Structure formats: structure tokens, C-alpha cells
Amino acid sequence: DNFTTNDGGLTYKGDNDLYGIISYEGLHDSGAIYSSITSKGKYFQVRKAEPTSRDDIAALNSSCLVDGKGNIIVPEGYAAFDVLNERYVLAAKASKVTYSEDKTVVNYNDENGLSFTTSSYMSDSASWYEGEWCVFDIKTGAPVPNVSGAYKVDIYARGDFLLYKNASEENARVNSKGES
């Protein structure tokens, strides 16, 4: 159950069955405080409480994104993350269980765990969640203004620009200030 990142982090399982992050050189150790850790490129998605059912929205949204030293990149309050590039992270927050694929933002299935729903990925065995997504700018540590939504999204980051399309909009291209 160990993961590593390409940015100097290693996970471990403690005696208390919780997980921690330690830097390669051993100078930074979060302690075994996380109930789950998932590698997301050079970052880790961590959660301190696991959902007890598909309706446990509070625990589902208890993830945050940290680096290999345990520094918070995106604060707690989200269900899933997708690192788009060195600058941007897509974050999704679940609000309620849904049975409509069209309104799905986040889904869960036993094989792949929690992930975003995009037009390229769906699963018949999924638990679907309505919610909202936003894009965090890693450089500023804040959401990019005007880049959020409540429907499935196809989004790509190229340098400082984001290209995205969701079910309710035409294509959009914005910079880090949310300007078209």
C-alpha cells in the first residue's frame, strides 16, 4: 500500500492502520493520520474519514490535495481531484446521490474508486453524485474565477490557459484570471 510521487514523497501505513507521507530525505513526516491516500501525479489525495455509505456526503467531501511534504495544495472539502498540469487542478465536490448520468459530476465504482465523470468515462456499476467542480490555480492557491460548473466537463490545461466544455456550455478558453 505504498505510493510514491515524482516530487519526493512516499506513503506508509502506520501501526494504527492509518497512512502517512514522508519525504524521501526523511525531513518531513505527516504522521499516520490519513484513512486513505491516492497518488495524483506529483501530489496525493488524502482523506481523514472514509464514507460509511454512498449517502455519507460529508466524508466523501473530506479530501484535500497535498504535496510530498504534506503541504496542502487544495484545502479539504472535495471528493475528487484531477491534476491537469503543473499549474491547475480540477476539484469536484459531491452534493447528493443521483440516478441521472447527465447531472453527474463525480462517480464511484468498486474497481476504480472515486473519479470525475467525463464523456470519456462512465461505469454501469457506479454511484453517481451531483455536485460542482472548480479549477484551482496551484500558483495562487485559489480557485480560478469564473471556471466552475455543475455538469460533466471535458477540460484541458495548456500552459496558463484552460480549455473546457461542459453539458450546458459551448467551448470556453480562459486564462488564470478567468478571462476569455
List the helices and strands and how they pair.
Elements: E1 9-13, E2 19-23, E3 36-40, E4 43-47, H1 57-60, E5 63-66, E6 72-78, E7 80-83, E8 88-98, E9 106-109, E10 113-116, E11 127-137, E12 142-149, E13 153-158, E14 161-166, E15 172-174
Antiparallel strand pairs: 1-2, 3-4, 4-5, 5-6, 7-8, 8-11, 9-10, 9-11, 11-12, 13-14, 14-15
Key descriptive features of the protein:
six-stranded antiparallel sheet; mainly beta; single chain; four-stranded antiparallel sheet; 180 residues; flat; 2% helix; 1 helix
Strands, count: 15
Beta-strand share of residues: over 45%
Major beta-sheet overview: 6 strands, antiparallel
Q: Helicity, in percent?
A: under 10%
Helix/sheet category: mainly beta
Helix count equals: 1
The radius of gyration is: 16 Å
What is the N-to-C order of secondary-structure elements (H for helix, E for strand)?
EEEEHEEEEEEEEEEE
Q: Ends: how far apart? A: 43 Å
Shape: flat
Contiguous uncertain segments of 5+ residues = 108-126
Overall residue-averaged pLDDT value: 74
